[in-house]
Specification:
Low-confidence stretches: 631-637, 682-688
Radius of gyration: 31 Å
Helix content: 40-55%
CATH architecture of the largest domain: 3-Layer(aba) Sandwich
Bound molecules: adenosine-5'-diphosphate, magnesium ion
Structural class: alpha/beta
Mean pLDDT: 86
Oligomer: single chain
Distance between the termini: 27 Å
Number of strands: 22
Strand order of the largest sheet: 6-7-4-3-2-5-8
CATH superfamily of the largest domain: P-loop containing nucleotide triphosphate hydrolases
CATH class of the largest domain: Alpha Beta
Length: 688
């Protein structure tokens, strides 16, 4: 079955190109292209039994047919079978159709029935004219409906998948899982499972099918999860045998740094620094994920790790996903490191040519700390002695990017250690699958004195009250964030809305300085504003969600978020994390436009009830799905065909133990499983 689709009868280059758009290039891919839903066309229903909302097959004879104008031109036919009558309505029709649908013609139709003015009706049914008395052949199985793409008709796709299934029946068994496993788990064979999901027999409970709870589907999901897990495990094992520079566990610089900090490290920070120190002391590369809620103090840990490298005369690259966040790290690291006599070099895509040249020279000359955006890993950047890469807010980067970075950082026989940090805490089972190539540790303790951010939700109609509470906070010398809604992905509209809000606030608060940042404000201007806000010269910062990640202004203790009902939980939690960073009590007001949908109500409720990022992440996961949480929607590696990390979480533990067994006892199966489910991306990165 590992043949290109063009070898299948009826597939030419044009069709093959369409198929490749939905990820189908091999005949076998057709088998793993699974239905999104099913239609029951196995029984012809009497027209008299049809009810609104039914999707059904029925047959009858055309009583009347006419083209009429009801605001627009349409073809209306009345179909009857002796038990009842139904109206067929076509808004688009050809002359040929008009001719075929004449009085006396017998039709078999399929579609969704609804209630029209004059009784049951159906718009644009699929139909076939019946020429002989006996009626059409009934479908033997439920009819699968596949995800498809423009220009690739459902019927065509269904037929091709049918051919692949016929080959599957004739071919040798494609089974890769050990018999004992499928027996223990009560799973059908791969062949049976595939046949079942594509052609469920009549009477199958489609409710169960839609929930993907049927053993056939669970078996496929299991195999897919297993393949992804194995691919990441293999990656991790390949990394293990690579060489990295062994760094001192706790050198002089790190000791001086910690002693000079204006605060004590939390227990969690100390523990994580020790763990990281142990990793760095080894001569194979660290691959560690540091999870910690917003404000838990990840930056200090990263700094401590960087000093292990600096102590040994090596370089650290620190990468953040946005300019704003990278610049903030630059400022922090300069504060911390320049007193220790360490140069901090800045590299972003926005540097002038001469500045960039100077930065590249410094990097090639061995500058100990380099801070920047992904520009750090573009062509032309040569590190002299790179030993450690720190990636902040990992969820903003995909798995692929992370792996590509490691390749890029490799020098001679050495691969840099990698520390990736995320403020989006990932539930354990999920982390074990999605990040199976990383060791993970958790910063589960916030710096002392922090108080939870008191969160309330208010209808936007109470805006005046909210402005009052802003005034009160300002009187107490606090600073305030006012976060404006995002409007339809349009920078310009966002900017206008934000300007409007800022104008009104400035009017309502004449004694205070209100400033505005949004995506259209030039970076230099934005930096000036952020710096002024940080130093307390600005009282109210009106911003679009550009401030979402990482900004640190401890004196800001009130945040207003407009149109909170439109934002995701994780994003709201991140935003809210901008306040509550000092020791004063802070609050967050979620303004919403009523009426709230059920989903929005639940989301806002979660934020009101808990300030704990893990709890928020768990709820978010339950409400949304894994892809978005992990930021992998676009990146592909965790893009699954059947499995869903949330829905199928109960399988994950078994997946892990089975993976270990396979790696030990039947390693030859592993690459085949990976190729089947993860494809080229998996095997490529597996080789890294
Ligand atoms: P995040 O984990 O969100 O990246 P940061 O590293 O930005 O958090 O830290 C948030 C704030 O807490 C910073 O102002 C930082 O200086 C401060 N901080 C970090 N660790 C401690 C600590 N142990 N005690 C007191 N304040 C701390
Ligand atoms: Mg941070």
């Amino acid at each position: 079955m590992l043949r290109p689709t063009t070898q299948l009868r009826g597939v030419g280059p044009a069709l093959a190109e369409h198929l490749s758009r939905i990820g189908i290039t091999q005949v076998a891919d057709l088998l793993f292209h699974l239905p999104v839903r099913y239609e029951d066309r196995t029984q012809v229903r009497p027209i008299g039994s049809l009810q609104t909302g039914d999707k059904a097959v029925f047959e009858g004879e055309i009583q009347t047919a006419a083209v009429v104008y009801r605001g627009r031109r349409m073809l209306i036919a009345s179909l009857a079978d002796g038990t009842g009558q139904i109206t067929l309505r076509f808004f688009h029709f050809s002359r040929y159709q008009q001719k075929a649908l004449e009085r006396g013609a017998r039709l078999r139709c399929y579609g969704e029935v609804r209630r029209g003015r004059g009784g049951m009706e159906i718009a644009h049914p699929e139909y076939r004219v019946l020429h002989d008395e006996a009626g059409g052949q009934n479908e033997e199985n439920l009819t699968a409906v596949y995800p498809t793409t423009e220009g690739l008709q459902q019927g065509r796709l269904r037929m091709l998948i049918g051919r692949a299934l016929d080959e599957l029946v004739a071919a040798e068994s494609p089974e890769l899982l050990p018999l004992k496993l499928t027996a223990d788990m009560d799973f059908p064979s791969l062949r049976d499972a595939l046949l079942f999901v594509h052609r469920p027999p009549p009477g199958t409970d489609t409710g169960q099918l839609m929930l993907c709870r049927h053993p056939a589907q669970q078996r496929l999901a299991f195999e897919e999860l297993l393949a992804h897990h194995l691919s990441l495990r293999r990656l991790r094992e390949n990394v293990r045998v690579e060489k990295a520079l062994s760094l001192p566990r706790q050198g002089e610089l790190q000791r001086l740094f910690i002693a000079a900090l204006p605060f004590e490290l939390t227990g969690a920070q100390q523990r994580n620094l020790r763990e990281i120190g142990d990793d760095l002391a080894r001569d194979n590369p660290m691959m560690r994920l540091l999870q910690g809620d917003v404000g838990s103090g990840k930056t200090v840990v990263a700094a401590g790790a960087a000093l292990c490298a600096a102590d040994a005369g090596y370089q650290t690259a620190i990468m953040a996903p946005t300019e704003l966040l990278a610049e903030q790290h630059l400022a922090t690291f300069k504060d911390w490191f320049e007193p220790l006599g360490l140069d901090v070099v800045w590299l972003s895509g926005r540097l002038k040519v001469s500045e960039r040249r100077a930065a590249l020279t410094a990097i090639a000359g061995g500058a100990p700390i380099v801070v920047g955006t992904h520009a750090l890993f573009q062509a032309g950047v040569e590190f002299a002695r790179l030993a450690l890469v720190v990636i902040d807010e990992q969820h903003r980067f995909g798995v692929h990017q992370r792996l590509a970075l490691r390749e890029k950082g490799a020098q001679g026989a050495h691969v840099p250690h990698q520390l990736v940090m995320t403020a989006t805490p990932i539930p354990r089972t999920l982390a074990m699958t999605a990040y199976a190539d990383l060791d993970s540790s958790i910063l589960d303790e916030k710096p002392p004195g922090r108080q939870p951010v008191e969160t309330v939700a208010m209808a936007a109609t109470r805006r005046a009250e909210v402005v009052q509470s802003v005034a009160r906070a300002l009187q107490q010398n606090r600073q305030v964030y006012w976060v404006c809604p995002l409007i339809e992905e349009s920078d310009l509209l966002d900017a206008e809305a934000a300007e409007d809000t800022a104008g009104k606030l400035a009017e309502a608060l004449p004694d205070y300085r209100v400033e505005l940042v949004h995506g259209r404000v030039k970076p230099e201007q934005r930096d000036r504003i952020m710096t002024a806000f940080k130093s307390g010269e600005i009282d109210v910062l009106v911003a679009t969600t550009v401030i979402e990640v990482g900004v640190d202004v401890p004196n800001a203790s009130l945040m207003i978020i407009e149109n909170a009902e439109r934002m995701g939980l994780a994003q709201l939690h991140q935003l809210r994390g901008r306040v509550g960073r000092g020791s004063d009590s802070s609050s967050c007001v979620l303004l919403y436009k009523p009426p709230l949908t059920q989903m929005a109500r639940e989301r806002l409720g979660v934020l009101r009830r808990t300030d704990d990022g893990f709890e928020v992440a768990r709820k978010d996961l339950a409400l949304r799905g894994a892809g978005e949480l992990l930021g992998t929607r676009q990146t592909g590696l965790m893009q699954m065909k059947v499995a869903d990390l949330v829905r199928d979480a109960h399988l994950i533990e078994t997946v892990q133990s089975v993976a270990s067994d396979l790696l030990r006892d039947q390693p030859s199966i592993v690459p085949r499983l990976i190729r089947r489910w993860v494809g080229e991306a998996g095997s490529h990165y597996g080789k890294v």
